[in-house]
Every structure is written in C-alpha cells, then in structure tokens.
Amino acid sequence: MSVGAHDYEVFGLRVASELPLWPGQETRAAPPDVEVRIAAQLHGTVRGFTLTGEDTTTVIEGAATVRVQSGRLIELCPTGAVDVETLSVCAAGAGLAMACHQRGLMIIHGSCVARGDRALCIAGHSGVGKSTLAVAVAQRGMSLLSDGMTVFAANGALRCLRGPRMAKLWPDSLEHLGWEPTRTERVTPAFDKRLVHVDGSVPSESRLTTVLIVKSGDELKLEASSPGASLMGLVKHAYLAEHLAEASAADLLEAWARVAGMFQVRQLTLPRGFSALERAAQLVEAQLEPR
C-alpha cells in the first residue's frame, strides 16, 4: 500500500492525512486540526460509535476499523488487503464524521446547496438521488457546499460548512448532467460511482434554512412535515446513525431536538430517473429565494 502526506481544508478544519482523501482538493494547511493515519492494529478499542466519547470506534465491514480520539486523530486499521481508495472513503466519511461529532458539530447524510447566506440540505437514504439533485441545482447557479455529508456548526443558527468541491455520481447521472463517464474516476475500484469536480463560487458557510428529506415515489411532490416527523427524520438521517452505540441514541435525539426549531423540514417525493429532475431542481431553487 502506497501512501503519502496530503493536506486539506474542509468543514472549517485543516486535515493532514497519510491517505489521499479528496483528489484535486489539496492545499497547504498547517498546523492540522485533524490527522489521519494508518494503524497496523488498534489496541483496547471498544466497538460502537458514541457521540460523546473522547475515544470511539466503529467497524466498516470488509474495509477497516476506524478509531477517533478527541476529534484530532483518525486511525484506520485495514481489514485484510484493502485498496487505498476504500480506506480513503472510510477516513473521509466515517472517520471525519466521528471527529466532527467529538468537536461538537452535527452531521446529516445529505448534500448541501446554497444561495448566498441561505443553505438547504437534501437528506435521504443512499440511492434516492440526493447528489444528482444537488448537482442539478448547482448547475442552475447555486453553490454546492458539500455532497453526501453535510456538517453544521451551531452558533445562534445552524451554519452549513463548506466541504470538498466535488460530488459522487453514478454514470447515468453523469451523462444526464453533461459529463462523459469514461473520463471520470471511480470512487473505489469496486464501486462504480464517479468523482466529479463542481465549479462555481462557494461560501465558507451559509445559514441552514431548510432540510428536504427525500423519498422515492411516482409523483414529484413537496410537502410540509409535522414537528414530530421532522425530528425523527433528522435523527434517522444523521450521518453514521446505523453505527451509533445504543447508549448514544438518546444523545442524538436530544441534540437534534435542541436545534430543530432553527429551520424548516419538508418532505420531497422524487420519482426515479430524470423525468422530474429539472422540476425538482426548480423547487429546491425556490426554497432558497430570499424571504
């Protein structure tokens, strides 16, 4: 396995990594806030990611054990002969999310778009079309703040922090949005999503005004969500929710309950395919209009 030294600035943090995390996004950022290292083995780890623990671990099946300490050190112990790209995904996803939690930040499994100081998060399960919709919105002149993982800082309001300026899209989405899939690189050798760089001016942070929770359906529809359903949707789509230790479930619910009144939550039913994509992008754009 060949690794080197790589520096990045994402989500308001300077990250120094032994692994290449975001191709084409490197910068000179020293000293680091967070370090990413490869470990031959991890001693004394307790399995089960916790929100409040200073030393917490999770296992990405078939890839690596990920340990994070004090929001500053991410260690990855590979499971067998794992390729560098897969380890990088574990570090940039689960590892960084755990470090952000330890730093008091909040994370949703979703993509984030912005217009000036107003931001909207598109949340939902894998495969529902979050990234495709976010990039389609960006192509209408909005800013893509982050893809796949949206990180918030609570400071009077929730502020969405700028992530890597790239998105992960399936080949059919790439082609529909104007890219040539064969000229893009895979996220990992075994995973056919591709990496694309999204151009445009991007603010360092924007105020969260709306979370759209996306589900698949036959008809494009945007609906209000009750306070109870909104809260449960936020908890359900919190990044790493499926890796959370049982003891931390109440902590997650409490954390989102404290901030749920700072923004609106709506539900977007999105048909599969691309027939409604342009109309869905228009709906998202309208949510970002100044009010």
Explain what this protein looks like in three dimensions:
The chain has 291 residues and is an alpha+beta fold. Helices cover 23% and strands 35% of the residues. The chain has 6 helices and 18 strands. The protein has helices at 84-102, 130-138, 171-177, 227-236, 249-259, 277-287, and strands spanning 6-10, 13-17, 34-38, 55-60, 64-69, 73-78, 106-108, 110-115, 118-123, 143-146, 150-155, 157-161, 166-169, 185-188, 191-197, 205-216, 221-224, 264-270. Strands 7, 8, 9, 10, 11, 12, 16, 17 and 18 form a 9-stranded mixed beta sheet that branches. It is globular and about 50 Å long. The model has no long low-confidence stretch (mean pLDDT 91).
Distance between the termini: 52 Å
Helix/strand/pairing category: alpha+beta
Main sheet attributes: strand count, strand direction, barrel closure: 9 strands, mixed
Shape: globular
Question: What key phrases describe this protein's structure?
Answer:
alpha+beta, six-stranded mixed beta sheet, 291 residues, nine-stranded mixed beta sheet, 6 helices
Short overview:
This protein has 6 helices and 18 strands. With 291 residues, the chain is an alpha+beta fold.
Q: What is the topological layout?
A:
Layout: E1 6-10, E2 13-17, E3 34-38, E4 55-60, E5 64-69, E6 73-78, H1 84-102, E7 106-108, E8 110-115, E9 118-123, H2 130-138, E10 143-146, E11 150-155, E12 157-161, E13 166-169, H3 171-177, E14 185-188, E15 191-197, E16 205-216, E17 221-224, H4 227-236, H5 249-259, E18 264-270, H6 277-287
Parallel strand pairs: 2-3, 3-6, 9-16, 16-18
Antiparallel strand pairs: 1-2, 4-5, 5-6, 7-11, 8-9, 8-10, 11-12, 12-16, 13-15, 14-15, 17-18
Helix pairs in contact: 2-6, 4-5
